[in-house]
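Take a record:
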Amino acid sequence: MKDPALAVELNLQYLDIPCWPQLPKLSFLENMYAQFCEGFPGIVLDIDSKKIYVRGENPEEQERFFQAVLGKDYSYFRITEDYAQGLYLFAEKVKEGEIVKGQITGPVSFGLSIFQENGRAIFYDEQWREIIVNHLSMKAIWQYRFLKQIAREVVIFIDEPYLSSIGSGFLTISETDIQNSLSEVVNVLKSEGATVGIHCCGNTDWVKLSNLNLDIINYDTFNYPHSLLLHPEVVLSHINRGGYIAWGIVPTSGEIKDVNIEGLMGRMKDVFQKAGSKKIDINLLKERSLLTPSCGTGTLGEKEALRVYDKLKELKRSLKEVI
């Protein structure tokens, strides 16, 4: 999708918690990794080859960066309109909304997608990892405060697609580094008063993320319907302390062309039946449930994106009658 106005309108019309749209098809600057690079010391965005890397020597930039962090100069970490057209148009359209959602790329995925000139991902370097966590924490706070001007409650999601590789041979980083990096960003946002969620568009080990004090867990329920329910103790603990599960049940891949409401209904009914078999309080789970697309729709064409939202709306209406 390349039309920011249409994307904003769809989000406001169809989503329980409307969010500002990311539009990677509009510009590489709105790619989920490039979008949060402004102000990062030594960053190089190669738009032609769509690559992001950092220069090896940048002491002056790092000094300015840490001065901004220590001085809590959040304006240094602002997200400008060139990188997020949907954010500013969204802010114009909301008009004192009750609740809105923003998002930021998580430190693990961000750090594994940006490389040093030697080809090594920056997350593996302790000094770079410190910069990543500080950078994203400050970006998240700036975004929270920006959105707080237009809404009573602000939800910030941490998008972490790379968490689907936890425990695989591909992701060879320590669980401690993952936990510490995520915890710092979550805790900074919570201290500001934000409602914090995490989104992983694949399967992951939710037990290892269960101590992050999250308010919302959002995962791809369409492709991995039972992955979260493999750990019923995580679900029970989460909803018992007031957390929500956001079921990403409507696919945002090419499968949206063939999906029907009966099939989506069947998947969700199966999920709730599975939860009941795990001794999870179904009534409480219903109260603590949200329905969402499985991932963002920014990479889809307008026709496919509209179909995602239409199916989501129809599914919500249908499920109320049977669940």
Notes: The chain has two domains: 1-197, 220-323. DSSP finds ten helices and nine strands in the chain. Residues 1-197 form one domain.
